[in-house]
Amino acid sequence: MADQEEFIEQDEIIEEQVLDDQDNGPIPMDDDDDNAEVEDEVEDEASINETNNEEMVELVDDSVQGFFGHKDSVYAVDIHPIDQNIIVSGGGDEKSFLWRSDTGEQICELSGHSDTVQSVLFSKDGQYVASGGMDGKVFVWKVDNRELIASLEGPDEVVWLDWHPKGTILLAGANDGTMWMWQIPSGNCMNVFSGHAGPVTAGQFTPDGKKIVSGSEDSSLILWDPKTAAASLKISREDARFHREGITSLAINKESALILTGSTDGSAILVNLSNGADAIIKLQWHLDSPLLTTCSADRTVRLWDGRTGNNEKTWHGHQDSILGFALSKYESNIRLIFMEL
C-alpha cells in the first residue's frame, strides 16, 4: 500500500518562521522594532524619574498675601502712599488692577490699554493713580471713586512714569527718546524733552522738584530744567569715566545732590548734581562708619553721611580733576592722598 500524503491543519501550527534563500535559519527581527521597544522603555523610565523629581521638589511660599487676577506677567506695582493696603499692578495682559494687600480682594480693574502695561504709579498725595503702556497711552484715575480723569497720548511706548514730589504733574519716559510732562487733572502737555538718541530707560524729578534727571539706552545722562525743557548737564560715553553701555536705573539722594546710575556694563557711577558740573570719579566707604568720601572732576573731595546724604565736609586745593585718593585705616585722623589730572 502506497504511502499517503499527510497534511497539517491550521490549528496545529504553533509558530511560523521565515527562512532566507540559503536556508540559513530565520531572518532576524527588524532593527526598527528593537529600537522602538528600547525607546519605549527609556521613555517609561524618564517618566518615572520625572514623577519622582516632582515629588521631591519642596515649594516654599513665604508670602502673606497674593493677588492672582492677572493672566500674564506682572511688570509694575506700587503701594498707595497713605493707605499701605492699597496696591496697583500692571501686566502683559494689558490690564491694571487696584487690590488690597491685607485681604487679596480686587478693588477694581483699570482698563483701556491695548498693549502691555509697563508702569503704574500713585501720585505723592495718593489722590491719583496713573498707568503707562507700550501702546503709547497714559491713563490717570482718581483713587477714591476710580473715575478716569485723563487719557494722554503723545509718546511712543511708555517705559516709566514719575509724579512731581510737590504737585500733580506727571512725567513719562518713552522708547522714542523723549519725555512728556502733563498737568493733572487738566491733561495739558507742559513740555516735551528731547535730547537722548535712544530709549529713555530711567528718569525722575529730583526730590526738591527743581530738576529732572533722565538716563538712556544710549548711555547718556541728562539734567533738565522742567520749566524750559533745557538741558543743563549731559554726560555720555564720550567721557571715558562714564558708562560704556546703556543706563538701566538711577536714584537720587534726598538732598538732590547726588545721583547713582546703573548700567548694562555692570557698573554703578555716582554723579554730583549739587554744582551742575562734573562726574564723581571715585567713591569709598569709611571702615566701620556710615561715611562716604568722593573725589570729582570738579576738583573737590567731599565727605558724605550715607544715612542722610548730607555733605559733611568739602576739601579744595587741586587745580584740575582729582583722579583718586586713599584712606588710611590705622589712624584716628583719616589721611587722604589725592591724585590730580
Q: Can you walk through the features of this model?
A:
- With 341 residues, the protein is mainly beta.
- It has a domain at 68-194: 7 Propeller (Methylamine Dehydrogenase, Chain H), CATH 2.130.10.
- 8% of the residues lie in helices and 41% in strands.
- The chain has one helix and 25 strands.
- It has one helix at 31-56, and strands spanning 74-79, 86-91, 96-100, 106-110, 117-122, 128-133, 137-142, 148-153, 158-163, 169-174, 178-183, 188-194, 200-205, 212-216, 221-224, 231-235, 247-252, 258-263, 268-272, 280-285, 291-296, 301-305, 311-315, 322-327, 336-340.
- The strands form seven sheets. Strands 1-2-3-4 form a four-stranded antiparallel sheet, with no helix packed on it.
- Strand 15 and strand 16 (231-235) form a beta hairpin.
- The radius of gyration is 34 Å and the shape is extended.
- The mean pLDDT is 83.
- Residues 1-39 are annotated as: Disordered.
- Pfam families: WD40.
- It comes from Dentiscutata erythropus.
- WD repeats lie at residues 67-109, 110-151, 161-192, 193-234, 273-314.
